[in-house]
Amino acid sequence: PVIHPTARTRQEAEPMPYPTERPRRLRRTPAIRRLVAETRLHPRDLVLPMFVKESLTEPVPLQSMPGVLQHTRESLRRAAVEAVEAGIGGLMLFGIPTHRDAVGSAATDPDGILNVAMADLRAEVGAETVLMADLCLDEFTDHGHCGVLTASGAVDNDATLVRYQDMGLALSAAGADLVGTSGMMDGQVAAVRSALDGAGALDTGIFAYGAKYASAFYGPFREAVDSALQGDRRTYQQQPGNRREAAREVALDIAEGADLIMVKPAMSYLDVLADVARDPAVTVPVAAYQISGEYAMIEAAAANGWIDRDRAVMESLVSIKRAGAQIVLTYWAVSVARRLTAGEDLG
Ligand code: PBG
């Protein structure tokens, strides 16, 4: 080996006894790196969020989320089969109705798009894949808020809980394994649990969006669900700077009967995720949602040639698992599952 002249001079003048620790030994070959990897990703860790829109006759690609579609009922079934074949852990369904009103009637209508599409998926995939749905009213209300409003326009917590109960029952009847309570109303997990139990739906679980922040990174999701929202969700979703508050929200959800806990968004909240995952009081599985804006940022930077897309995608997912998520919701679930199955390294 060629030793730099300066280094040789210094070595001869004063032999260096260090470094005695050489961490690079464990990075030398891909095989060694694989052996010592602290974080592994498996297709079953991944959940694919999917959008189905009532009025469509053809699937529509989303501008702000290249590669993601608003599905028709028919294209949803086909895409779900592909996702199952890729070996992912589950699907999370969002519905976009044609008719929107003040109380989000379409959410609780058994013939509403979310409920019929859930039934389609159940018929298509059988018990083989975990089926989940977002339990929230924002796709169904004409004002775009996650609940119903008071006369003065505030989101009415307790009136919303009644709507969530009915929505939970409708989704359970349609075949959902888990309902994702994402509205950040106080008491929503207890309310939905008691409604499910009261109807004998003891096996329908609650995937609680325990810590959910009022994030600008939901931006592309607005296009994905044709959101009607004016204003923001700051009176119900958490403010980004609050970390301890997440522990309180998560503790409440667990006490109310949450079967799984989610942190959302993921990448800007990895500290919160790590807190939740390490909290000894959190004995349910912990998930994180890599949301629309996280997807869009990486896709946009990659499309400009500014970052290596495939590596950035894998790194983002590994970082979310490293922070403590056992399950990751990601719009890349299928492509990443295929890459993992093909034996690709995690970076
Ligand atoms: C609420 C809901 C939202 C997302 C998932 N469930 C929107 C919001 O809270 O404003 C966002 C998901 C994403 O951005 O990928 N129904």
Automatic annotation (TrEMBL):
<comment type="similarity">
    <text>Belongs to the ALAD family.</text>
</comment>
<comment type="function">
    <text>Catalyzes an early step in the biosynthesis of tetrapyrroles. Binds two molecules of 5-aminolevulinate per subunit, each at a distinct site, and catalyzes their condensation to form porphobilinogen.</text>
</comment>
<dbReference type="GO" id="GO:0006783">
    <property type="term" value="P:heme biosynthetic process"/>
</dbReference>
<dbReference type="GO" id="GO:0008270">
    <property type="term" value="F:zinc ion binding"/>
</dbReference>
<comment type="subunit">
    <text>Homooctamer.</text>
</comment>
<dbReference type="GO" id="GO:0004655">
    <property type="term" value="F:porphobilinogen synthase activity"/>
</dbReference>
<dbReference type="GO" id="GO:0005829">
    <property type="term" value="C:cytosol"/>
</dbReference>
<keyword id="KW-0350">Heme biosynthesis</keyword>
<protein>
    <recommendedName>
        <fullName>Delta-aminolevulinic acid dehydratase</fullName>
        <ecNumber>4.2.1.24</ecNumber>
    </recommendedName>
</protein>
<keyword id="KW-0456">Lyase</keyword>
<dbReference type="GO" id="GO:0004852">
    <property type="term" value="F:uroporphyrinogen-III synthase activity"/>
</dbReference>
<keyword id="KW-0627">Porphyrin biosynthesis</keyword>
<comment type="pathway">
    <text>Porphyrin-containing compound metabolism; protoporphyrin-IX biosynthesis; coproporphyrinogen-III from 5-aminolevulinate: step 1/4.</text>
</comment>
